Request: fold
Amino acid sequence: MNEKERKLLAYFLDLASEEFSYHGCNDVCDSVWKDWTLEERRQFVKEYHEWNRDPEEYDENFLHLPDFAIMSFLVDKLTDIKSIRKEKLEELPQLNEHGLKSCPFCGELEWVKVVREGTNRQSCQVRCENCGCFLESNEIGSGWAWNNRKNVQNG
Reply:
Protein backbone atom coordinates (compact mmCIF):
# COMPACT_ATOMS: atom_id res chain seq x y z
CA MET A 1 0.00 0.00 0.00
CA ASN A 2 1.48 3.35 -0.99
CA GLU A 3 1.41 6.51 1.15
CA LYS A 4 -1.57 8.06 -0.68
CA GLU A 5 -3.59 4.87 -0.25
CA ARG A 6 -2.71 4.77 3.47
CA LYS A 7 -3.85 8.37 3.88
CA LEU A 8 -7.07 7.57 2.06
CA LEU A 9 -7.64 4.51 4.24
CA ALA A 10 -6.94 6.54 7.35
CA TYR A 11 -9.36 9.26 6.24
CA PHE A 12 -12.23 6.79 5.75
CA LEU A 13 -11.36 4.94 8.93
CA ASP A 14 -11.57 8.25 10.78
CA LEU A 15 -15.00 8.96 9.26
CA ALA A 16 -16.21 5.47 10.18
CA SER A 17 -14.92 5.97 13.71
CA GLU A 18 -17.12 9.01 14.13
CA GLU A 19 -20.17 7.18 12.78
CA PHE A 20 -19.58 4.14 14.99
CA SER A 21 -19.19 6.33 18.07
CA TYR A 22 -22.92 7.08 17.95
CA HIS A 23 -23.88 3.42 18.32
CA GLY A 24 -23.51 3.26 22.11
CA CYS A 25 -21.67 0.43 23.80
CA ASN A 26 -20.02 -1.56 21.05
CA ASP A 27 -17.02 -3.49 22.28
CA VAL A 28 -15.28 -5.58 19.67
CA CYS A 29 -16.07 -9.27 20.05
CA ASP A 30 -13.29 -11.60 21.20
CA SER A 31 -13.23 -13.47 17.87
CA VAL A 32 -11.52 -10.43 16.29
CA TRP A 33 -8.50 -11.12 18.48
CA LYS A 34 -8.21 -14.87 17.73
CA ASP A 35 -4.84 -14.48 15.94
CA TRP A 36 -3.37 -12.33 18.71
CA THR A 37 -1.48 -13.64 21.69
CA LEU A 38 -2.61 -12.44 25.08
CA GLU A 39 0.61 -10.43 25.39
CA GLU A 40 0.07 -8.76 21.97
CA ARG A 41 -3.45 -7.82 22.93
CA ARG A 42 -2.35 -6.44 26.28
CA GLN A 43 0.33 -4.37 24.56
CA PHE A 44 -2.19 -3.02 22.04
CA VAL A 45 -4.70 -2.04 24.74
CA LYS A 46 -1.92 -0.48 26.83
CA GLU A 47 -0.73 1.57 23.82
CA TYR A 48 -4.32 2.62 23.19
CA HIS A 49 -4.70 3.97 26.73
CA GLU A 50 -1.39 5.83 26.48
CA TRP A 51 -2.51 7.33 23.17
CA ASN A 52 -5.90 8.21 24.70
CA ARG A 53 -4.14 9.95 27.59
CA ASP A 54 -5.74 7.72 30.20
CA PRO A 55 -2.98 5.21 31.04
CA GLU A 56 -4.49 4.83 34.53
CA GLU A 57 -7.49 3.11 32.87
CA TYR A 58 -5.35 0.25 31.56
CA ASP A 59 -6.11 -3.06 33.26
CA GLU A 60 -4.31 -6.10 31.90
CA ASN A 61 -7.32 -8.24 32.81
CA PHE A 62 -9.85 -6.01 31.03
CA LEU A 63 -8.90 -5.84 27.37
CA HIS A 64 -12.15 -4.64 25.83
CA LEU A 65 -12.22 -1.52 23.66
CA PRO A 66 -15.06 -0.02 21.63
CA ASP A 67 -14.75 -0.35 17.85
CA PHE A 68 -14.74 3.41 17.22
CA ALA A 69 -11.89 3.86 19.72
CA ILE A 70 -9.81 1.22 17.97
CA MET A 71 -10.49 2.87 14.61
CA SER A 72 -9.39 6.29 15.88
CA PHE A 73 -6.26 4.80 17.39
CA LEU A 74 -5.40 2.97 14.17
CA VAL A 75 -5.93 6.13 12.15
CA ASP A 76 -3.19 7.84 14.11
CA LYS A 77 -0.96 4.80 13.75
CA LEU A 78 -1.46 4.84 9.97
CA THR A 79 -0.72 8.48 9.32
CA ASP A 80 -1.10 11.96 10.67
CA ILE A 81 -4.68 12.11 9.44
CA LYS A 82 -5.77 14.78 11.92
CA SER A 83 -4.03 17.52 9.97
CA ILE A 84 -5.56 16.23 6.71
CA ARG A 85 -9.00 15.99 8.32
CA LYS A 86 -8.71 19.48 9.79
CA GLU A 87 -7.92 20.89 6.34
CA LYS A 88 -10.93 19.07 4.86
CA LEU A 89 -13.22 20.31 7.64
CA GLU A 90 -12.03 23.88 7.15
CA GLU A 91 -13.03 23.61 3.47
CA LEU A 92 -16.59 22.62 4.42
CA PRO A 93 -19.11 25.39 4.99
CA GLN A 94 -20.59 25.79 8.45
CA LEU A 95 -24.29 24.87 8.56
CA ASN A 96 -26.92 25.93 11.06
CA GLU A 97 -29.42 23.67 12.83
CA HIS A 98 -31.60 23.68 9.70
CA GLY A 99 -28.71 22.48 7.54
CA LEU A 100 -28.33 25.85 5.79
CA LYS A 101 -25.27 27.96 5.00
CA SER A 102 -24.86 31.48 6.36
CA CYS A 103 -26.31 34.52 4.61
CA PRO A 104 -24.11 35.64 1.70
CA PHE A 105 -24.74 39.32 2.52
CA CYS A 106 -24.61 39.77 6.31
CA GLY A 107 -22.89 36.48 7.23
CA GLU A 108 -25.59 35.52 9.74
CA LEU A 109 -25.89 31.77 10.28
CA GLU A 110 -28.46 31.24 13.03
CA TRP A 111 -31.19 33.44 11.53
CA VAL A 112 -31.30 31.69 8.15
CA LYS A 113 -34.46 29.60 7.83
CA VAL A 114 -36.68 27.87 5.31
CA VAL A 115 -39.75 30.07 5.10
CA ARG A 116 -41.61 27.82 2.68
CA GLU A 117 -40.86 24.29 1.53
CA GLY A 118 -40.96 23.77 -2.21
CA THR A 119 -43.57 21.46 -3.69
CA ASN A 120 -44.96 20.77 -7.16
CA ARG A 121 -47.31 23.72 -6.67
CA GLN A 122 -45.22 26.33 -4.79
CA SER A 123 -41.68 27.61 -4.75
CA CYS A 124 -39.17 27.14 -1.96
CA GLN A 125 -38.10 30.21 0.00
CA VAL A 126 -35.08 30.52 2.28
CA ARG A 127 -34.69 33.80 4.15
CA CYS A 128 -32.18 35.50 6.41
CA GLU A 129 -34.27 37.05 9.15
CA ASN A 130 -31.36 39.32 10.08
CA CYS A 131 -31.00 41.33 6.85
CA GLY A 132 -34.00 40.17 4.80
CA CYS A 133 -32.02 38.46 2.05
CA PHE A 134 -33.98 35.61 0.53
CA LEU A 135 -33.77 33.09 -2.26
CA GLU A 136 -36.80 31.71 -4.01
CA SER A 137 -36.33 28.64 -6.16
CA ASN A 138 -38.41 26.03 -7.94
CA GLU A 139 -36.81 23.17 -6.00
CA ILE A 140 -38.91 20.55 -4.30
CA GLY A 141 -37.83 20.39 -0.68
CA SER A 142 -35.80 23.03 1.08
CA GLY A 143 -32.37 24.56 1.04
CA TRP A 144 -30.51 22.93 -1.84
CA ALA A 145 -30.47 26.07 -3.99
CA TRP A 146 -29.47 28.24 -1.00
CA ASN A 147 -26.59 25.95 -0.07
CA ASN A 148 -25.38 25.58 -3.67
CA ARG A 149 -25.50 29.24 -4.70
CA LYS A 150 -22.52 31.16 -5.96
CA ASN A 151 -21.04 33.19 -3.12
CA VAL A 152 -21.18 36.96 -3.34
CA GLN A 153 -17.81 38.67 -3.58
CA ASN A 154 -17.75 41.62 -1.21
CA GLY A 155 -15.83 44.72 -2.22
